[in-house]
Amino acid sequence: MLTSPLFLVGFMACGKTTLGATLAKTLLLPFVDTDDILEQHTGKTPAQWLLEDKESFFRHEETTILSMLCLDSTPRIIATGGGLPANLHHMNIMRHHGLVIYLQASCNYLNKRYQTSTIQRPLFPQNINDLQTMYNKRHPIYRQAHSTIATDNKTIEQIIAMIQHLLVTWNTMTSHVTSQIVSTTRKTYPVIFDEVSSLSTQITLNQFSKIGIISDSCCDTIYGKRLRDHIEQTGATSVTATVPTGESHKTIETAMQVASLLIEQGIDRNSMIIIMGGGLVGDLGGFVSSILFRGLPFLQIPTSLLAMIDASIGGKNGVNTSWGKNIVGTITQPSLVIVDQQLLTTLSRQDYQSGFGELIKYALIDSESFFVQLHRLAPMIANKTVVPTDLTNAIQHAVAMKTSIVSIDEHDTHHDRCVLNLGHTIGHALEAEHQYKDMPHGIAVGLGLLAAARISFRLGICDTNIETSISALLASADMPHHLDKYLTESMWSFLCHDKKRINKSLRFVALKNIGTPVVTNIPLKTIKKHLFIKR
C-alpha cells in the first residue's frame, strides 16, 4: 500500500509519535522517530541539547539524520521533531523522498496537550501569545506538505482512516513531488501538476457512459478538439457544452442552459463532467455538476492563473445574481484537478494581472517572504514578459496553501478557510457595481486588499499601514492601485448584500500584519466610516 517513506510533520505536542506508532502497526510497517534516532546518534535527547543551549548543533544533527533517513527508500512511518520540517529545505527533501502529511492542530489544542504531557519540551512556549507567534512562523512551512489533516477533536482511529484514504489517492498519482492532496472528512482527491494528456492515467474514462465537457467558447476553440480526441482514444464518448466568455454570463440562466444541453446530448447518472476553463467556467461548471442528477463526479482543468491557484480547488461552486457575486452556489469537491502550466501561454496581460491579484492575497495570508517574492514577478506581469515557468514556485506555493486550508476547513465555517476571503468583500462589491463586465475578479481583489488593509489600520488591528506596501506592488504590476477612485455609494449598496453579512455586521478578514490575517465581525457602519473617511 505504501512504496516510500511517510513523514508525519507538525507542531510540538500535536501527537506525531503516538499516531505514527499506531499507524505503523496498522499498516504493518516499521516506525521511526527522528528524536529517537538523534539520541542514538549523539547520546543526547533533544531536551538535553536544548537545555545545554546548543540548539544550532541540535538543528545540524537533525539535517544529518534526515539526509541519512532519506538514503533508504524503505516504506515506513517517520515522525519528525516539530522544528525539523520548519526548515523549508528539510520540507523539500522529504517531499522528494516520500509522502509528507501535516498533522494540523489548533494552538488551544496544542497547549492543552502540553499541559497534560510528561514529555520535556524546552522550546514549547510558556504562554498562549508566544505559542501563537511561533505557530504563525512555522505553520506556512508545515502546510507545504503534500497533504494536511486537521486533528482537533478526532480520535487516532479517525485520523488513521483518513490517512488510509489518502494513501489510496497517493498510489493512483503519477506525479508526486510537486502535487498536492486535498483530504477532508468526506473526500480525498489530488491536485496534479502535469499535462492534460496525463488525464487518462489518473482516471479510467471509459467506465462512464459519457464524458460531459463544460468550457467557454474561447477555451473550446483553442483546446477543445485536443481534449475530445484524447477522451475518444480511451474508448470513452464525450459531449460538449460551451458558455460565452465574461463574468456577466455566470448566471443561473446560463447554468440551466448548460444543464439542459448536456441532458439533450445524453448525459445521465453514470456520466462524469470535465470542466476546462478559467474561474468563471470552474464556478459555473462545478455548480451544474453538483446539481445535475443530484450530483455528478467532475474534475477541473483550469486554464487561467487565477483558476489554477484558487477557483479550481476547494469545491466552491456558484453563480452571480443581481444581488451580488456567488450568492447562489454549493460546496462540492471535484474528483481531480490537473494543473498544466502550458495552458497559460495563451493568456492576455489582463489575465495574468487578474491571477496576480489572487497571488498577492495568498502572500498576505502566508508570509513576508512570499510577499517579497512577488516583487520579482510584478514587472514581468506588467510587461507581459512572464512565461509560465517563472510562476512555477508561486503557483505551487499557493496551491499547497489552498489545499491545506480546504482540508482543515472544507465548509468555510472556521477561521482557517475564512482567511481566503481577504480582499473579496470589497472586491465582490466592485465587480457587482461594474456588472461583471470591465472589472476582472483579480483586479477587484487587488483593490479589495487595499480596502482590507485600510480598514485594519484605521481600526488599530495592524500597527503599520500595509496599504502602502500593497499599493506599491500593484503599481509594479501596472494594476489599479488608487482605491478612493473606486469607492462609490452604488458599490456600497452591493456590499450590504454580501453573503458574509449577518444582520448589520460583516464577517471581515483584516490584517494584523503580512502573514497574520484576522477574522472578525465588523458593523457595516464601521466599515463605511473607515473606508470612506477623508484622509
Task: Name the features.
single chain, 535 residues, five-stranded parallel sheet, alpha/beta, seven-stranded mixed sheet
Provide a descriptive summary of the structure in words.
The protein has 22 helices and 17 strands. It is of the alpha/beta class and 535 residues long. The protein has a seven-stranded mixed β-sheet with strand order 6-7-14-11-10-8-9, with helices on both faces. A five-stranded parallel β-sheet has the order 2-3-1-4-5. Helix 10 links the parallel strand 8 and strand 9. Helix 4 (55-70) runs parallel beside helix 5 (88-97), helix 13 runs parallel beside helix 14 (349-366) and helix 14 runs parallel beside helix 19 (441-458). It is globular, with a radius of gyration of 24 Å. The N and C termini lie far apart (62 Å). The relative contact order is 0.08.
